[in-house]
Design brief:
ten-stranded mixed sheet, alpha/beta
Length: 273
């Protein structure tokens, strides 16, 4: 588990099959958010986990799920609020949720385009106990689901990762991009921005299958710690891709001049840095 006290740990639950160790990830999060139909997953698969917010246009949230969270609020005193977003067809539910979280971070409130101002005021009132956490300067976001099911959804999830780890408008309160890890039922993924990076993995993960792939732009990549290391190799769609590689060390060093997506199988549990 990540224990950085300067970091706000947020778990976003999508409307897909959760990863095998989802409950552990949810328990280590400071804030849990159901992303539209992901609220159904929370209510049915993890009924003891309190959601602090449900974000979306609610076109996929069942009446039973709404009743479940209302019961949590009444019976357990759980701080929970609905944030209904506009039906914006140009952004996905995951993008809406990430917009909410990045606006939340360091401010202790929600505001901005696409968010109901009255809802923002309700969050301030109902989440008084969370305000010290919301003021933490950095964001560590865990996304549960999004790498299985429809292929277009998977591509969009990767595109969303790229947007929110590279765009200037998606910075945390400390001015840095958020750390976002996506956990699927068979693979995990994260964005590796341009520069030099050290990826720490569990010792039990040595030998796991991994991959490094560019996201739309030719990338020159060098690595250490893989079975088949790269040395200023050009990775590009329509050319070479580093797939079906193997982790050979508890530390994998990556240097790239363009964003990459790092993937690893979930046969051994990922431990994000």
């Amino acid at each position: 588990a990540r224990q950085d006290r300067a970091c706000l740990r947020v778990a976003l639950v999508l409307n897909t099959e959760p990863p095998p160790h989802a409950l552990e990830l949810l328990r280590t999060a400071d804030v849990v958010i159901g992303v539209d139909g992901g609220a159904n997953v929370l209510a049915s698969r993890f009924p003891t986990v309190a959601a602090h917010a449900v974000v979306g246009d609610f076109d996929s949230v069942s009446e039973r799920t709404c009743a479940h969270f209302e019961s949590q609020l009444q019976d357990k005193g759980v701080d929970c609020v609905e944030l209904r977003m506009e039906r914006d067809q140009d952004t996905t539910d995951l993008q809406k949720a990430l917009s909410v979280v990045t606006q939340w971070n360091g401010r202790g409130h929600l505001c901005g385009e696409g968010v109901d101002v009255a809802g923002a005021q309700a969050v301030m009132a109902m989440h008084g106990s969370l305000l010290p956490l919301l003021a933490r300067p950095s964001l560590d976001i865990t996304v549960l689901g999004g790498l299985e099911g429809r292929l277009d959804h998977t591509f969009q999830a990767l595109n969303t990762l790229l947007i929110y780890t590279t765009a200037e408008g998606a910075r945390c309160a400390n001015g840095q991009p958020p750390s976002i890890h996506v956990y699927g039922s068979t693979s995990n993924a994260r964005i590796v921005p341009p520069g030099k990076h050290c990826i720490q993995v569990d010792t039990g993960e040595v030998g796991a299958t991994c991959g490094l792939m560019p996201l739309g732009t030719r990338a020159t990549v060098s690595t250490e710690g893989l079975k088949w290391n790269l040395c200023e190799h050009a990775l590009v769609w329509g050319g070479l891709m580093s797939t079906s590689n193997k982790i050979a060390s508890p530390q994998v060093d990556v240097e790239t001049d363009q964003p990459l997506v790092w993937t690893v199988t979930t046969s051994c549990r990922d431990s994000p840095p």
